[in-house]
């Protein structure tokens, strides 16, 4: 038999209130939905072509705090002794650099450098042995992800998230 939740003009029964609170807490646990959010990484890329590509092939200044996650560099030809790749991150207080040696015609690197607003990135390439030949074309691309504090936050009710159409 169904009991009325509250009888009109009757005193509040603590036992009944405790029962209702227990039922509500169970319902609340069941109704919790989780969702995930993605912070899209930003691409940074450049291509330098010429008779003798040497020195800086990419310069970029960051407008927000984040992390340089990974990068790839591709050369049009493989040099016998390899190519020295220097990743330099500098600001008004100093800088940090990492050096890599590419022995093939492409290389994946993971500098994992934290960047701040106004930091400047310079990537340079130099043949280890200048007599090996010259680089005619260099392709380079990095991705960096902004920190959560720099991301644009949009609030939606969980029920409304299900209604948002995904891009086709």
Describe this protein's structure.
The protein is mostly beta strands. It has a domain at 42-150: Sandwich (Jelly Rolls), CATH 2.60.120. The protein has helices spanning 14-31, 158-161, and strands at 42-53, 55-61, 66-75, 83-91, 94-102, 106-109, 113-115, 120-127, 135-146. Strand 4 (83-91) and strand 5 (94-102) form a beta hairpin. The protein is rod-shaped, with a radius of gyration of 29 Å. The two termini are 52 Å apart. The model has no long low-confidence stretch (mean pLDDT 83).
Keywords, separated by commas or semicolons:
168 residues; mainly beta; Jelly Rolls; four-stranded antiparallel beta sheet; rod-shaped
Summarize the structure.
The protein is mostly beta strands.
Query: Mean pLDDT, nearest integer?
Result: 83
Q: Tell me the distance between the termini.
A: 52 Å
Strand residue percentage: 35-45%
Structural class: mainly beta
The number of distinct helices, counting runs of at least 4 residues, comes to 2
How would you spell out the order of helices and strands? HEEEEEEEEEH
What shape does the CA trace take?
rod-shaped
Helix content: 10-25%
Topology, number of strands? 9
Radius of gyration: 29 Å
The residue ranges in which pLDDT falls below 50 over 5 or more consecutive positions are none
Shape-level CATH architecture of the domain at 42-150: Sandwich
CATH class of the domain at 42-150: Mainly Beta
Annotated CATH topology of the domain at 42-150: Jelly Rolls
Largest sheet: 5 strands, antiparallel
């Amino acid at each position: 038999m169904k009991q009325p939740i509250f009888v009109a003009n009757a005193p509040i029964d603590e036992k009944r209130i405790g029962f209702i609170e227990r039922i509500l807490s169970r319902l609340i646990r069941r109704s919790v939905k989780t969702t995930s959010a993605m912070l899209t990484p930003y691409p940074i890329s450049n291509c330098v072509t010429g008779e003798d590509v040497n020195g800086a092939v990419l310069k970029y200044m960051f407008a927000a705090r984040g992390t340089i996650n990974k990068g790839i560099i591709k050369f049009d030809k493989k040099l016998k002794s390899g190519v020295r790749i220097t990743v330099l991150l500098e600001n008004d207080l100093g800088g940090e650099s990492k050096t890599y040696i590419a022995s093939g015609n492409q290389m994946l690197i993971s500098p994992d450098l934290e960047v701040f607003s106004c930091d400047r990135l310079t990537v340079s390439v130099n043949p280890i042995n200048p007599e090996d030949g010259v680089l005619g074309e260099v392709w380079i691309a990095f991705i960096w992800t902004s920190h959560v504090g720099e991301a644009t936050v949009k609030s939606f009710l969980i029920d409304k998230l299900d209604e948002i159409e995904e891009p086709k």
